[in-house]
């Protein structure tokens, strides 16, 4: 070892060496399997290998060989028992070259912003999820989440949960979780299959399916506009894409073995990903979905992990984008919910060219995202985060500058997520009894 070399740097090199060896083994193993058997395979993440060209698989092996070679070159220099500054510098350059090769290969394969394909972020507790939110003419609601996450073991699990809400408030929950190897991701990374629950994000007709004995749902969401996303992130690597603001949706549902009930309305789809626990990105996030003929609105108001407030929205009117960008003002009034988890009562916001106000109703669904985890893992996770997710109906009133004193009214749905209980409880937040600030 080079005299004076930092232990952390040596440990980083050892970790990288193991990583590159796994890349090399992955490429060699799957290339030979594909060439000899011509049958679908699955990687550790559950990615099906069918349909991937031999050249692509061979490329993975080449990347692994090349990067590993760069690491070995650096390691040999670092391992030499010499004190020359030049040799140490060469070792660092070789090691950084290997790291750069990995970063370049990842950048070349990463989906573009607005592409609903899975990004498979790396890191302990890294995750990504998609929400499908639909309101139908019959009064039925669909609230669904599909998530992929690393439970801290270097693997990737999948979980889906949500519920169908009938007009009278009756709820039909559904959920499923699978460990690595029990779920599948197609080669395009746009179809996530948990056997009885499937999300297919292939445009132009995206599809969500639940096929259980007690409940069946099939909803198709058509492309209705361009995707959008905030320009800034609440923390590095914590990103959100609004894939669909208000796309036309149709399908059906059944209860047990009863007849299929047709559904027709509008739906929104979001996609978020992060390099670790969501608590490292946000303390709290409130999202509003308004979907009806001629109007689509998505608003996101968050409190970052450092306590900063940010609000962003996109508004579609008659097929045209009316506004997309940060709100100039946003004020939420809160009411008591579960202990430590207040719920919104009212919201008022402003942005260039528009003003909005929202009244929230009683919740129609509360979820504990960690409840589907094995108990030992859940105990470990709860030492860092105790998230809660709440869905509630809302009434939106929107005024555009081109139509002063004329409010556009629309039913909406709200998604509230807390990554940990609120510090200080509701006493530390604006309460529902406080006056709403007047607009400028």
DSSP E strands, number: 21
Order of helices and strands: HHHEEEEEEEEEEEEEEEEEEEHEE
Kindly provide the name of the CATH class of the largest domain.
Mainly Beta
Computed structural class: alpha+beta
> What general form does the structure show?
globular
Strand order of the biggest β-sheet: 4-3-2-1-11-10-9-8-7-6-5
Provide an overview of this structure.
The protein has 440 residues and is of the alpha+beta class. The protein folds into 2 domains: 7-109, no CATH class; 127-428, AttH-like domain (AttH-like fold). The protein has helices spanning 7-37, 54-79, 85-109, 375-381; strands spanning 127-136, 141-149, 157-165, 171-178, 184-185, 191-193, 197-200, 205-211, 215-222, 239-255, 261-274, 282-292, 295-304, 309-317, 320-326, 329-338, 341-351, 354-360, 365-367, 388-400, 407-418. The longest helix has 31 residues, at 7-37. The radius of gyration is 24 Å and the shape is globular. The chain starts with 6 loop residues before the first helix and ends in a 22-residue tail after the last strand.
Question: What brief labels describe this structure?
Answer:
440 residues, 2 domains, 4 helices, AttH-like fold, eleven-stranded antiparallel β-sheet, alpha+beta, 21 strands, 20% helix, ten-stranded antiparallel β-sheet, disordered N terminus
In short:
The chain has 4 helices and 21 strands. It is α+β, with helices and mostly antiparallel strands. The N terminus is likely disordered.
